[in-house]
Design brief:
Layout: H1 3-8, H2 11-21, H3 28-34, H4 38-52, H5 60-79, H6 84-106, H7 112-116, H8 119-122, H9 124-150, H10 157-174, H11 179-206, H12 219-240, E1 249-250, H13 257-268, H14 273-276, H15 281-285, E2 292-300, E3 306-312, E4 315-321, E5 327-336, E6 342-351, E7 361-366, H16 368-371, E8 375-377, E9 381-388, E10 391-395, E11 399-409, E12 413-424, E13 431-443, E14 450-459, H17 471-476, E15 486-495
């Protein structure tokens, strides 16, 4: 500027030029620094919105609530020194954050459904909702105290928000849902948050200053640490809690003159030698005096195979070819002496090729009485075996018995079923991993076939599933097939007991 113009400019003209050069409102980054109400309060409101409305796809039901509680934590963190109500909200936000991190970490283990089924944890959802309700009450009372100090009149939408959460709780308890109720609830929630959003601007305009709490960690560092803890918890769950604890012990093979005599008779009747070698002394002697034996062997793939193309005439066909079958299942039935017909049934499986991953396994048994009313059944027993360094080890199943579960069918709706399940994990080291189930089928009515089925569900990896499920949980969800982290195959032992000679129906 020319020096003469500068000398001739009076103070009023200079002030006018300076005012014209400034924007009407400061940028948000500047306004947030000098009027700190806007950022923390709006973080809390965004957090409440993310926690209240979630979507059940793409993992948003986990990501959005986590992002919401972190936003609330950061908002209350700034306001906690303003009054005791904001301080209480900050403590409750911390409680919810810890619970959220723990539950998200537990979801990466096979124990999540077992733990959530415990009576204290069944109320976890109500506990989290109660904490939210109290937190909203703290927000309401904290805002009310601030408005009084700032000299602002009018009611507080925080109290209305508290009522809204109460209505939401009553809807959850009474089971009210659907668009007829959902749309008004969402609209009212949006209007309440809009009112509170405006309140943050009103507090800025009133020029009310708050006592911001000193912090040692920046917001970004705090969030990074919390997400790091969560990542460590999930990785620990995936790495250390994917298998059942099994009680493996050295095996003592059945021996004795009487045992050897029964084994010789069974082998002469056609009992498979590899299955017979795995039976206990009691199971072998239970087959003493056997009259007939029938067996059936099938092999199954648990890999994805390879696609081949065949040209027949002017058409091209695609099919899947499996170059190896990892699992062999042998069904054996031994007819036992007695007034009425009775059979000892064995379902034996052995992994002939290592499938590459060992997690949880499950075998569902549809025994002969389950399929035909002409038979009754005794107790289902069995065990697991494998070899390592020339030594055979054995273990009972982690859980073996009848389990009742409810699943949804596309054609028949919700259905409850009670089946015998064997749940277990096989060792990651060793070879010749195998096991079997056995029971006695006793004749109740004449003319019924033996029809005994097993579903074997194998876990192929722990990827692509969150929360983590066990093989049984996957199967009871009515999932079937070969895609994803699990694959299920079916095998059946079926024959007419009155046929001579006995032949399986496969």
């Amino acid at each position: 500027m020319d020096k003469r113009v500068w000398d001739e400019m009076d103070e009023g003209t200079f002030d006018a030029l300076l005012e014209e050069s400034l924007p009407d409102e400061p940028p948000d980054s500047v306004a947030g620094g000098v009027t700190p109400w806007r950022t923390p309060l709006r973080r809390i409101l965004v957090g409440l919105a993310l926690n209240a409305v979630t979507f059940q796809f793409f993992g948003l039901q986990y990501c959005l609530p986590l992002a919401g509680i972190l936003m609330e934590l950061l908002g209350f963190r700034v306001l906690r020194r303003e009054n005791r109500w904001f301080g209480g909200g900050w403590c409750l936000a911390w409680c919810q954050t810890v619970l959220r991190l723990v539950t998200l970490s537990v979801n990466a283990t096979i124990w999540n459904e077992t733990l959530y089924a415990l009576p204290p944890l069944q109320a976890l959802g109500y506990i989290l909702f109660f904490l939210t309700l109290v937190k909203v009450a703290c927000l309401w009372r904290g805002l009310r105290a601030v408005k009084e100090k700032a000299g602002l009149s009018g009611g507080s939408s925080g109290g209305v928000l508290l009522v809204w959460y109460g209505v939401l709780f009553m809807m959850a308890v009474t089971g009210l849902d659907g668009w007829l109720f959902g749309i008004p609830v969402l609209v009212s929630f949006a209007l309440i948050l809009r009112s509170l959003w405006k309140l943050s601007g009103a507090l800025d305009e009133a020029g009310y200053g708050i006592r911001t709490a000193p912090v040692r960690l920046s917001d970004r560092t705090l969030v990074g640490l919390l997400l790091g803890v969560l990542a460590a918890g999930i990785l620990c769950g995936y790495g250390c809690f994917q298998c059942y604890p099994m009680d493996w012990q050295p095996d003592r093979p059945a021996a004795g003159a009487r045992v050897e005599a029964v084994k010789a008779d069974l082998l002469a009747l056609g009992f498979p030698a590899d299955v017979l070698a795995d039976l206990t002394e009691e199971e072998i002697l239970a087959c003493e005096g056997a009259l007939r034996v029938v067996s059936d062997v099938h092999e199954f793939p648990f890999n994805d195979g390879r696609q081949v193309q065949e040209v027949l005439g002017d058409r091209v066909y695609h099919r899947t070819v499996y170059d190896r079958n990892e699992l062999r299942i042998t069904g054996v039935a031994v007819e036992l002496p007695g007034e009425r017909e009775q059979w000892q049934i064995f379902h034996h499986f052995v992994w002939t090729i290592d499938p590459g991953f060992w997690g949880t396994e499950a075998v569902k048994l549809w025994n002969a009485p389950r399929n035909n009313e002409g038979w009754s059944s005794g107790e289902v027993t069995g065990r697991l075996l494998y070899e390592k360094d020339g030594q055979t080890y054995t273990a009972p199943y982690y859980r073996l018995g009848q389990e009742t579960h409810t699943y949804d069918s596309i054609f028949f709706g919700s259905h409850t079923s009670a089946d015998v399940w064997a749940q277990f994990s096989l060792p990651r080291e060793g070879e010749n991993r195998r096991g079997y189930l056995t029971y006695t089928a006793r004749e109740v009515q004449d003319g019924w076939i033996i029809d005994s089925w097993v579903d074997y569900t194998h876990q192929r990896s722990f990827f692509f599933q969150y929360p983590v499920r066990t093989a049984m949980e996957y199967r009871t969800a009515n999932s079937f097939g070969g895609s994803g982290p699990f694959k299920t195959i079916q095998d059946a032992l079926q024959f007419y007991p009155n046929d001579d000679p006995l032949e399986p129906l496969s």
